[in-house]
Structure formats: structure tokens, C-alpha cells
Amino acid sequence: MTAVPFDTLKLAGRLEDGGFTHEQAKTAASALAEAMAGAELATKNDIIQLEQRLTIRLGGMLVVAVGILLAAVRYLPPHP
Questions:
Q1: CA neighbor of 29 nearest in space, from 56, 6, 52
Q2: What are residue 49's phi and psi, to 5 degrees?
Q3: What is the domain range of residue 14?
Q4: I need a surface site. Which of 11, 43, 59, 79 has the fewest CB within 10 A?
Q5: Mapping DSSP to helix (H, G, I), strand (E, B) and coil, where does residue 54 land?
Q6: Does residue 35 sit in the same domain as residue 50?
Q7: Are residues 37 and 25 in the same domain?
Q8: How many structural domains are present in the chain?
Q9: How far, in Å, CA of 49 to CA of 25, rounded?
Q10: Is the pLDDT of residue 7 over 50?
């Protein structure tokens, strides 16, 4: 997981342009930067690996389910 660069000065400027006071903009920008610093963001590679693991897990569950159904058909007595 990688950190995303974040320009607090640019955000504060945009907030001021939107009507925030200088102090409000500075505080909001620093709070957001602080929150994002601790955030763990998934990369494209993380998503691909997760997709592969889920596909393998789903395939395994499908094989088990078909095996159970085939065993039930073969070993359960016929319905009268």
C-alpha cells in the first residue's frame, strides 16, 4: 500500500475561494492531510490479487458443491 501525495496549500486556497475563512481552510486542509496520512489505500495490483484469490475460492466452493450433489444422487436411496 502506498501513500498519496497531498497538497494542503492548494486545498486551503480552493477552500478560501469557496468561502471558507483562512483559519477554517487551513484547519480543514491539515485535518484531511492528517487523516489521509494514516489511510491504507489499495493499489491496482492489490485489487488484481484479491480478484484472483476470490476466483480460486469460488471455484473451490463450486467443486465441493457439485461433489456433494453427485454424492447425494449416487448414495441416497431413490424416492418411492
A1: 6
A2: -65, -40
A3: 1-41
A4: 79
A5: helix
A6: no
A7: yes
A8: 2
A9: 39
A10: yes
Last residue of a domain, one of 41, 56, 71: 41
Place of cell 468561502: 19
Cell numbers 501525495 correspond to what residue? 5
Q: Is 41 helix (H, G, I), strand (E, B) or coil?
A: strand
**Cell (9 digits) for 39:** 489511510
| Side-chain-facing half-sphere of 26: CA atoms under 13 Å | 3
pLDDT tens sequence across 10-64: 989 999 999 999 999 999 999 888 887 777 778 899 999 999 999 999 999 999 9
Least Cα distance to 2 among 40, 50, 35 occurs for 40
Instruction: For residue 9, give the amino acid letter.
Output: L
DSSP 43: P
Reading the block at residue 38, the C-alpha cell is 494514516
